[in-house]
Amino acid sequence: MALPTTIGNLKSLKKFYISANQLINLSDSFGELHNLIDLDLRANMLKLLPETFGNLKNLINLDLSFNKFVNIPNIIGDLSSLQRLNMQLNMSESLCFAVSLKKIEHWEIFCKPENLAGIYWKS
């Protein structure tokens, strides 16, 4: 399943909860939801995020748990307001990332400690 490409027309959308809908991908127009602050995409079938996802500069809460990500997408590092990230229970036990999480206050991820070496915070 996929969301319509016209999703980007919802310019005033601030909260979007679309969990457990068997989404396989997100269209590029998703990056046009500039006012989005809270996004719940848990329990879908996502493996990748569109490059435009990094345009969601106001996003504070992001739940990508129970999807099929093997790595945390680098584009997450472009989410300059992100404070809460949930990547629990994705495809790989070795889920790891090397992205800058500028304002992150809370994150949830099941990962082996030796795979956390690439995580760093910037102030």
Largest sheet: 5 strands, parallel
What percent strand?
5-15%
Low-confidence stretches: 117-123
H/E element order? EEEEE
Kindly, what is the distance between the CA atoms of the first and last residues, rounded to a whole number of angstroms?
38 Å
Count of DSSP-assigned helices: 0
The structural domain count equals: 1
C-alpha geometry = globular
> Any idea what the radius of gyration is?
14 Å
The count of β-strands is: 5
Mean pLDDT: 82
Keywords: Leucine-rich repeat, Repeat
Domain Disease resistance R13L4/SHOC-2-like LRR: 6-104
Organism: Forsythia ovata
Protein name: Plant intracellular Ras-group-related LRR protein 4
Describe what this molecule looks like in 3D:
This protein is mostly beta strands and 123 residues long. The chain has a single domain (1-123), classed as Ribonuclease Inhibitor (Leucine-rich repeat, LRR (right-handed beta-alpha superhelix)), CATH 3.80.10.10. The chain has strands spanning 15-17, 38-40, 61-63, 84-86, 106-108. A five-stranded parallel β-sheet has the order 1-2-3-4-5, with no helix packed on it. Mean pLDDT is 82; it is low at 117-123. InterPro entries: Leu-rich_rpt, Leu-rich_rpt_typical-subtyp, LRR_dom_sf, LRR_domain-containing, LRR_R13L4/SHOC2-like. It holds the Pfam family LRR_14. Residues 6-104 form the Disease resistance R13L4/SHOC-2-like LRR domain. Keywords: Leucine-rich repeat, Repeat. It comes from Forsythia ovata.
